[in-house]
Amino acid sequence: DQQVKQNSPSLSVQEGRISILNCDYTNSMFDYFLWYKKYPAEGPTFLISISSIKDKNEDGRFTVFLNKSAKHLSLHIVPSQPGDSAVYFCAASLTGNQFYFGTGTSLTVIP
Amino acid sequence: SAVISQKPSRDICQRGTSLTIQCQVDSQVTMMFWYRQQPGQSLTLIATANQGSEATYESGFVIDKFPISRPNLTFSTLTVSNMSPEDSSIYLCSVVGQGPYEQYFGPGTRLTVT
Prior knowledge:
The complex is a heterodimer of chains A (111) and B (114). Chain A is an all-beta fold and 111 residues long. Chain A has strands at 4-5, 10-14, 19-25, 32-38, 45-51, 56-59, 62-67, 72-77, 86-94, 98-101, 105-110. In chain A, a hairpin with a 4-residue loop joins strand 7 and strand 8 (72-77). With 114 residues, chain B is an all-beta fold. In chain B, strands 2, 4, 5, 6, 9, 10 and 11 form a 7-stranded mixed sheet that branches. Chain B has a 4-stranded antiparallel sheet with strand order 1-3-8-7, with no helix packed on it. In chain B, a hairpin with a 6-residue loop joins strand 9 and strand 10. The radius of gyration of chain B is 13 Å and the shape is globular. At the A-B interface, strand 4, strand 5, strand 9 and strand 10 of A face strand 5 and strand 10 of B.
């Protein structure tokens, strides 16, 4: 049973425009959400996170939005840069003891 | 941040054989995690390895198939035993990071079983 879903396997965006990556989850008990970025032949690297008690967290060009009623979170990248081209995974945690990852969205930023 | 290395980076193995994957961290850590990412699938936690105790396996994973060693605070191994083509995956180790629930991942081991 997939508790965290990323329904878009790929996304292409023009350089300078906004990239929006989406993630849905089913378990309302998740208390923390994270986004990871993965380049080929490398492991995922942490990008940004948000606690379930918040609805927005911003770090430079990256903003994560959480809509608990819809069980939905999104990652906004503004402006998008070619170096942002990677696979992005969302993840959800239950008290830090269990982690559930989505299947990833491959972002391509076109120069 | 922790620097994590894994060996081998990739391997092609025959059905029925076993492969041991090594994970080395540049600092001492209490908990290490082993994940699997099958083609087109999400990262799935196999087990949590604490130094000095038995690994804790997630549902669907058993010690006979995926034995884990954790001899010290910087090193762990995962063995994939009696392999079948369904074991073809990327295997990643990770450790807890600085932020809440954040993890640092190794580069992964790409395993292909023929």
